[in-house]
User: Fold this.
Amino acid sequence: MAWVSSAEAQRFVEVVNATVNSIQNQGKFDCQANALQLEAAEMTVSGETIRWMVGKEVEITTKGDVYGRQWDQHSFETVLDQVLEREYQKNLIYQAIQEGCAAPRDISQKVGLNLRQISYLLADMEKTNMVEFKGMEACKPVFAAL
Assistant:
């Protein structure tokens, strides 16, 4: 993802050319093999968190945050990238649970995140009512999507 102002025509051309070249070099995309990741990405970009952060970007980088601290563009984009990554990972876990992976180890194998990350994210997802802990089965914690 790249942020480009309407006044940055040359930067826009560079970003588009780099994107097109990257896509062409990767070859044909297999939608079926990447369905889980695509759904998680779609949930992420259409979610409330990204809308809120993008909506606050100009205010935070020009006027400052609630504490009066003005952020430079790079700092804001760094935080935005971290938030997007976390939201994407939570949505990826959610999609895996929707597909029947209920235990953290099964989720880990499906999505490629380590167990520690999954545990932290599941705890966060419980707080926001995305998932719920259903109990233990064969000494494994089991979760369900809400």
Observations:
- Residues 12 and 18 are 10 Å apart (CA to CA).
- The chain has a mean pLDDT of 93.
- The beta strands are 131-137, 140-145.
- The two ends are 29 Å apart (CA to CA).
